[in-house]
Amino acid sequence: MGEDHQAKFDPKHTFNYCYQFVKLRRAEGQQSPLTLSCASLARPSTGRYRGQRLIEVGTGPTIHTLISASQYYDEIVVSDYVDSNRREIERWLNAEEGCFDWSAHIQYICDLEGARTPQIITDTLRQKVKQVLKCDICLENPFHPVTVPPADCVISSLCLEAACKDRESYRRSLSSMVGLLKPGGVLVLVGDLEESYYMVGEQRFACVNLSQEFIRTTLSELGLDVEEFTLQQAEDRNIHLKCDYTASFHLIAIKRCQQPAN
User: How far apart are CA 4 and CA 14, in angstroms?
Assistant: First the structure.
């Protein structure tokens, strides 16, 4: 499925459909799955999740999940399978002309935090992102041949359900992701439930159908304890038919210090 994304995934369609929409939503005072994921690390309670290294798996062409996390971790590693997605991130990190404008998302986090300014957040995030890596979550080491030291936090948003063909491959990929965590580290996962497809522009991509029960059971079997599992029900899918999920989820899970035997 990765080759399909490499050949057909266009970051500009993602920006136009998903992320420009947030500006309108924010102006109207509405919530969306994207503002849910933006806010997931901005709540005061998440200040206890902090450390040296944060890894994001399947960053896509975006930085929205890292905006608030940048104040809690000293070093950030971002990654994606698709070359054009990594290039878009590098364009923003280097403040290149024509890079996507994340100011509405950054201002949203500023309003939630009530502390940092947009310029401080922008400068901090650009300084703390140390690596932009090729990532294949289907591998035991997703960053092969690069080895990244275990992280205090791993984030992934809307990645695994798109990268995996079935629940068994999802479980294997999630196991690889958990392997990137230190014992006691925190996993932050954002995704969709009961989704079979999504569209980027005119391109249709398949997804593995997930349930809350399956995700909770899989995480427990992989040696994690779920601390939070938040749902946001989908809007009327008949409006645009760009995807068919029933709910978005955000979860926080902690990797046990004593891991289950394989």
Answer: 16
pLDDT confidence of residue 236: 61
Residue 243 is classified by DSSP as B
Q: How many domains does the chain have?
A: 1
Domain range for 41: 2-255
In a domain, 17, yes or no: yes
Assess contact for 250 and 190: CB atoms under 8 A: yes
User: Is 85 marked as binding a ligand?
Assistant: yes
Instruction: Tell me the C-alpha distance between 76 and 128, whole Å.
Output: 6
Coil, strand or helix at 100: coil
Residue 114 lies in a domain: yes
Is 262 within a domain? Answer: no
* Cα 157 to chain centroid, rounded: 2
Check residue 98 and give left, alpha or beta (phi > 0: left; psi -120 to 50: alpha).
left
Per-residue pLDDT tens over the stretch 141-167: 999 999 999 999 999 988 899 889 999
Bridging pattern class, strands 181-193 and 197-200: unpaired
Decide the pairing of beta strands 73-80 and 51-56. parallel
**Under DSSP, is residue 43 helix (H, G, I), strand (E, B) or coil?**
coil
User: For residue 115, what is the domain's CATH number?
Assistant: 3.40.50.150
pTM score of the predicted model = 0.85
Annotated binding residue 19: yes
Q: Angle at the Cα of 246 (from 8 to 80), degrees rounded to 5?
A: 35
The C-alpha atoms of residue 209 and residue 168 are separated, in whole angstroms, by 11
